[in-house]
Specification:
- With about 260 residues, the protein is of the alpha/beta class.
- The strands form two sheets. Strands 8-6-5-4-7-9-10-11-12-13 form a ten-stranded mixed β-sheet. It has a three-stranded mixed β-sheet with strand order 1-3-2, covered by helices on one side.
- It is elongated.
- The protein contains seven helices and 13 strands.
Length: about 260
């Protein structure tokens, strides 16, 4: 059988079609939303880096309004060089109160780009509380906020009424000892007692409670009072007794019963 030689034919590719297919396969579609997202992230990241790392926003200036102790200033100065946005106003305020108990209210303000302002309101001292041989300053809310030494070292302390806790109760600064009502009672007695026949108040003693304060006079005798009754009425009763019986009083005058006065 005779074999026939078959000629092979070559299939040639169209170069124009091939070029178009390569271009279509090389093109990548990127959504516009993704591009916008990348731009926003980059912008936010750049701004964050600027606000956090830039020297422009590091605390350089600190000012104070009101009385601030050196210990408190030392604590505040620690934030210098920190980023102003990293400063926690509330934590700084609490820290100032810890090292400066006389501060009643502390507000911290930020002034961009690099300033901090600290405004301090001090407690108003109402009386001196003595216990266990120690002296404490007590404010109008009845809080013993600071232990002090000799109260005679400052003129403003000399004028304050002294309340002596005869039970020697141990207290800590920041503890509330008495009510604001008792503070008002003591303040009134202290301001008006010397008007009663020239008798001077030396100190006020309290026992287990403040319900029955005892006024110690410069004449050596005492006045037993009721902390729940009007101090004005009780001083009026004392004046009536002293007008007639001052020379007879050797130990005490008892005003704790309304409408009656006893003396010994």
């Amino acid at each position: 059988m005779a074999l026939r030689k078959v000629k092979s034919s070559k299939i040639r590719r169209n170069p124009m079609i091939l070029d178009r297919m390569q271009k279509e396969s090389a093109a990548i579609y990127v959504p516009k939303s993704f591009i916008n997202f990348v731009l926003i992230v980059g912008l936010v990241g750049g701004l964050a880096y600027f606000f956090v790392m830039s020297n422009c926003f590091k605390v350089k200036i600190i000012t104070y309004e009101g009385s601030v102790s050196n210990e408190a200033k030392t604590e505040v100065e620690k934030i210098k060089g920190q980023n102003i946005f990293a400063v926690n106003n509330f934590k700084l305020s609490d820290r100032i109160k810890e090292v400066y108990p006389q501060a009643y209210n502390v507000n911290v303000y930020k002034g961009l780009p690099d300033a901090i302002k600290v405004v301090v309101s001090e407690r108003t001292v109402a009386l001196i509380w003595q216990t266990n041989g120690k002296n404490f300053l007590v404010d109008k809310l009845g809080i013993a906020f600071r232990e002090v030494g000799d109260v005679s070292t400052k003129e403003e302390w000399k004028k304050l009424p002294i309340v002596v806790d005869t039970t020697n109760y141990v207290i800590k600064p920041g503890q509330r000892l008495i009510s604001s009502r008792f503070i008002d009672f003591v303040s009134y007695i202290s301001d008006n007692f010397t008007k009663v026949e020239g008798v001077k108040l030396v100190k006020i003693e309290v026992l287990e409670t403040s319900f029955h304060p005892i006024v110690v006079t410069d004449l050596g005798w005492k006045v037993l009072m009721d902390g729940n009754r009007s101090p004005q009425y009780q001083l009026d009763d004392l004046k009536k007794i002293l007008d007639k019986h001052k020379a007879e009083i050797k130990e005490y005058v008892d005003l704790r019963t309304e409408g009656y006065g006893y003396w010994k």
